[in-house]
Amino acid sequence: MLFNSIDFLVFFAFVITVSVIIKNRNFSYVFLVAVSYFFFYFSNNFLISLLIFSTVLDFYLAKEIWSTDSKSKKKKLLLISIIGNLGLLGFFKYADFGISQFNDLFKLIGLNEIPLLEIVLPVGISFYTFQTLGYTIDVYRGQLAPAKSFKEFALFVAFFPQLVAGPILRASNFLPQIREKFSQLDTKNYLKQILIQRTNLKIGLTLMSFGFFKKMFFADNIAP
């Protein structure tokens, strides 16, 4: 689902409308995670399992790292996160490249070539891999407490506006923001707090228009 497509505009309008209507914090979390997963599934189909795997892996590893006092155990848990995340990323990005390099060598010595795996690179895998890994490293260093709930962490990893185009989010920046926004659901002035101000609307539309222009006229034409 491309950002400059009609499908995305309809999808985005639906998300905004429902988000304004929902006034329950837990439902809001679940809804945004669900639509983010749908957005990813729309682009990757079965490869959404990789996103869920990375989310589950680092959520529980970070909690274990935070709760243990053993430095050696912390290092082992962090190593599991590094191997798990970078292993998946390396396989999907470089497996066929590695096979092709070996095939060049096999040609020189007269051996049969290895068939390419023809792996489809999952959309956004670099972004969510380094996001979850960075989160676990921050927890390991004691710079960040683990996410309060799985749905909170899942939203941080899968948040659809940045999932396929970046930037790579830091949990220390993102988690406090969503906690603050969702805490407003419990206030009486919630509707006043979410009303779009004219100045912000003009700035937002200007930035979006400029971004679409660069995407359609420069990026799409320069890309090979």
From TrEMBL:
Pfam families of this UniProt entry? MBOAT
Record's bilayer topology term:
Multi-pass membrane protein
**GO MF term list:** acyltransferase activity
**Which keywords describe this protein according to UniProt?**
Membrane, Transmembrane, Transmembrane helix
- Subcellular location field: Membrane
Q: Where are the transmembrane segments?
A: 6-22, 29-57, 77-95, 116-133, 153-171
Any one GO CC term of this protein is: membrane
PANTHER family membership: ACYLTRANSFERASE, TEICHOIC ACID D-ALANYLTRANSFERASE
Protein name in the entry: Uncharacterized protein
